[in-house]
Structure formats: C-alpha cells, structure tokens
Amino acid sequence: MLMLAVSQDQDPGCCSQAAAYIYVEQYYQAKPRHGTFHLQTPEHVGSSGARKNPRTMAGLIPAGLGSAFLSSSEKTEDDIPLTDQRRRDSDTAQQQRQQHSRPSMPSTYRDDDDERAGGDTEATPFITSPASPDEEIDHEDDPRARLRWPVILYSFTIVFLVEIALNICWPAWNAMLEKGICAEMVPDLAGFLIAGDDLDPRCKEADVQGRLAMYRGWSYTIDALPTIVLAVPFGSLSDKWGRKPVGILAIVGLFLVTVSYEVVFYFPLPMWTFIWSSMWYVVGGGAPVGVSMMYTMLADVVHVEEMASVLFRFQTVFLLGELVSNPLGGFLLSKGPWVPLITGNVIMVIALALLQLVPETIEVRRWHDARAGKRPEESRGLEKGGILAGFHEQMQRIREFLVTNKRAAVLILPFCFMQLGKYIQELLAQYATKRFGWSWSKASYFLTLKSASFIVTLTFILPALSTFCLARLRMSSLSKDLWLSRWSGLALIIADIVITFSFTPALYTTGLVLLAGGCGLGPLIRGLLNALVEPHHVGILNTVVGILETAGIMVASPIFSWSFQQGMELGGAWIGLPFAAGTLITCGATVIVWAYRIPVEVERGILEEDHIA
C-alpha cells in the first residue's frame, strides 16, 4: 500500500527519504555555497541552552523518519574563517591527530563576510552571516523575496492534504482487499465485495489473513522499485523542466495508483492484480519524488538562516496530517468503505489543483548560477547522456566512500536492521484486527495513539534529554548522540516485546505508546555517522543510507508478511511472530550501537570544537 508520510512508522516514508537524499545531494553539490546547509534532527532543533555541534548534525534533507531538519545557521570548519587563536588551536589539534584529522581550510581563505568586516578579530562572531556582497547588490533582483511565502504556504497545504488523502484511504484499501480475498477463497461469498455487508467471520481465518499479508508485502516491494530506478533521473529533469512539473507528475502518478486500486476493488478484478497498480509510479516517480520536490522548492526560496525553523514546521505537517487522518479515516470507514476512498480522491484532486498555483522556483536556481558566473550549459541540467553518466558516477562514489570510510560503514549496518524491523509496524493494524477481532476502523483509531506519542517524543522529550546531556552531564554532542541512540534502541526492543505478547488491548496500547521511545534511533545514528565522515562526504553518506532504507523495504516486506502468515496458521501466541522477529532485528541494531566506540581522535576534535564554540 502507499502512504506519503515520512515519519518513522510508515513505509513510503523511507522511500521518500531515500529519494530526497539522492536528489537533494545533487542539488547542493551544484548550488553556490553562500552558506552551508546542515541537517538537524529534532533533538538538536529543540535543544536550548546548549551549543550545537555542526559536524554531528551535518547532512541533507530526508523524506521522513520524519525527523531531519535543514539548517544553515552553523557552518562546518571548512566554511568558518579562522581567527588567529582558532588557527593555533587547529594547528595543535592537527599535530595530535595527524593521520586521522579532517582536511582543514587553508589559512588564506577569506569569507565574503570577512571582506566586508575587514578581517577577523577575537570579537568576530564565530557564526557569521551567510550573506555575500553580491546578495546585497542584487537584493532587489532576488526572486526569493517574491516567492518565499507563496511557496511555503502552498507546500505546507499540499503536503497536509495529500497526507490526509492517503491515510484516510489505507484502512479502506485493507478492508476492501480483505473482503475481495475472502470472496475468492470462500465461494459462497461471491458478490460479497460489492454488497458491502458486515464482514463474515470466515474472513478472519488464517488462510485469508495470510494471503492478505502476502499481497500487502509484495505491494510494498513493488512500490519501492520505481523510486530506486527513477529518483535520480527525475531529480535531473527538475533542473531542466523545473520543480513544479516534476512535482505535478509525481502527484498525478500517485493519484493513478489510488484510482487503479479502486478499479480492482469495484469490478472486482482478481485481487492479486492490485499489486501491479504500483507500476503507475513510473509517472513522476510517485510520492518520494513528490516529497523531494517540495523540500527542494523550500530550499530554493528560504534563506539559509531560516531554513531550520521552516523545515521543522514542514516536518510537523506530516505528523499532524497523520494524527488527523487516522481517526478521520476510521470514522469514514465506519460509514462504508467507499466513503473514505471517494473523499480521499477528492482531496487528492484539490491538492493537485493547488500545486498548479505554486510558483516555479527554478528561477532561483538560475539566479544563483548567474551570480556565480556559470554559463547555462554548465548548470546541472539534463545533458546528453546525463542520466546514465550521473548514475554511473553515483555508484562509483558510493564504492569509494565505503572503502575509505570503514568506521562509518560499520555504523551504517544498524540502518539495515532498523529498516527490516520498521516494516513490522505496518502490520500493527492487521495484527489488531486478527488478535482482538477489531474492525479496520477501530484499529485505525488506536494507531492515533502512536502518532501522538511520536509527536510528543520528537517535539519535547528528545530535545529535553539532549539539553540535559549537554548542559548538566557535560557530554560532548557526539557522546550525547551515542548514549541517546543506545537507550532509544532499548526502548524499541521493550516496545516490540510488549506488542508480541499483547494478549489484551491494554498491553497493545501500551506497546504503541512505547514505540515512540525508539523513534529517535534513526536520526541519532545519522548524527553519529555525519560526525565520522569528512564534510564533503556527507552527501554521499546520506545517499548510501537512503538506498539502504529503500532496499530494506523491498527485502523486509515479503519476509515479514510470510512470518505473519505462518504465525496466523500456528495460531495462539504465534500471531505475534513477526513482532518477535522484529525484536531480534532491533536487538541486532542495538548491540552494534552499544558495542560501538567513538574514535578517540574524533571525540577529541568534537570536544575542541565545542570548547571553541
């Protein structure tokens, strides 16, 4: 099934993140650096009273775990002009770390701000304005002043609408698919799908539920294929055609997928044919490419010093959309399966119409290129052979990165485990309908608790813990990330165990709330990874992670659907089999994080930077 949310608990969120990583990396490699962009996780954004470490948070925009935010209020050491004292500190640290130090910026480097100020002094702010003289000269011609608010408002509204449209549809899709499979496997229920009667108890039998899990698993796998193949090509096309045309194509493809589902259910066609509805994602690349276009349009028009706060609110839109749509979808489904489906289609059309009104932001990119003195043919447009050449170059860079960054490669392994375990959360609704005999609408209501818990954790709990570790425990920013990730992993293990043995609705509800304790594991590990690689490798790091996340969905979905099928056939406590498997996988990721030790030279460098800051 398909969903747009990039929060940790939803599968296409991972695909969205992967596509956004791949494309936004291309974007910022080409964009003139009048300030450097860095990724912040919610715990960093919310931390107050503590100096944030730019290297720990460096990265690119994702689509999802819903938990990364772009900031330029801080620069990497390569972007900060060195004062005399800082240069002496840097030279001392360089001698201590000889073989392991990152490349430092030559002392002759002069920032635009230094030229205006006439040089550095000890009173010079460590973080200076990213504006350049050219920006002041060209201020009247800056298209961002004209496009900023329309793009922000339209983007927020469109994402909120699409999030609601898809999330109110998915319980109905599951219910209709379950009915269709039941009608196929129980011959005397022919015509049951169209009649829309109350669900027959025979539809909760193990063979029906097992086939439902299998179909959904393979659907997730096929959903991921267009994302992997088309994310980079459509990203390149957006540099030639513009962001809006590619975004429109993505939403059109998404709409075609939803309509094709409903065509299968209405006639009805053989239920297995709904799996191939995902092939409509070839039109625009689907939700992942659409989300990446929204991120890119925001990056086009928002000044770097404001990007963190804007994208924090943008990420909140996804979570709020999920929070609203779960109970709304359950309520509409109680009125009949076609009520939420038709409502979702109408909302999707409204979102598509609003997208037509969004101003094109490619002119901002061209304005940057013109100010940087680039000729049009030098810009990263779709050149002859550009797609194949770009793909080959990307694969070559990935190979080189993994060979030269072995420490980071070790820490990337938990992402493989986490992505395999994340898919299990997609089985939560079906698990509840089978174990407790709930309707799909009631199961949807209960998932609202998980969404609300995620929002509270990402917005309040993690930022508070981050501040406590930095201000009270005097941890370095890197040690703080490592310890929080360790405890997040343990919280996720406990949640999986509780859900596995949730023989009562009360235990199930407790497990849903506890899942929020582990929602920061992904962003925290990403922060650690960003600290271990050189600044110019941050982009390729996030590309590797994005590819692993998307590939993880392809592998995990059929495997865990099969385990759910086997658990239902065995019956009893075995129904929780996929969650038990998820517990083991989460244990693997957590063991790696607990066993990992921060290299001494890296920790020393981080402490020096925190002290200077």
Report on the structure:
With 613 residues, the protein is an all-alpha fold. It contains 24 helices and 2 strands. It has helices spanning 11-30, 42-45, 54-57, 84-97, 112-117, 133-137, 144-185, 192-195, 206-241, 243-266, 287-301, 307-334, 338-357, 362-371, 386-404, 406-422, 428-435, 440-472, 477-500, 505-514, 521-532, 538-570, 577-595, 600-612; strands at 38-40, 69-71. A two-stranded antiparallel ribbon has the order 1-2. It is globular and about 70 Å long. Residues 1-90, 97-140 and 377-384 have low confidence and may be disordered.
Going by CATH, the homologous superfamily would be: MFS general substrate transporter like domains
Helix-strand pattern, N to C? HEHHEHHHHHHHHHHHHHHHHHHHHH
Give the overall shape, derived from the CA principal axes: globular
- In the sheet with the most strands, the strands line up as 1-2
SSE topology:
Elements: H1 11-30, E1 38-40, H2 42-45, H3 54-57, E2 69-71, H4 84-97, H5 112-117, H6 133-137, H7 144-185, H8 192-195, H9 206-241, H10 243-266, H11 287-301, H12 307-334, H13 338-357, H14 362-371, H15 386-404, H16 406-422, H17 428-435, H18 440-472, H19 477-500, H20 505-514, H21 521-532, H22 538-570, H23 577-595, H24 600-612
Antiparallel strand pairs: 1-2
Helix pairs in contact: 1-9, 1-11, 1-22, 4-24, 7-9, 7-10, 7-11, 7-12, 7-13, 9-10, 9-22, 10-11, 10-13, 12-18, 15-22, 16-21, 16-22, 16-23, 17-18, 18-19, 18-20, 19-20, 19-21, 19-23
Subcellular location: Membrane
GO molecular function, one term: transmembrane transporter activity
Region (Disordered): 68-142
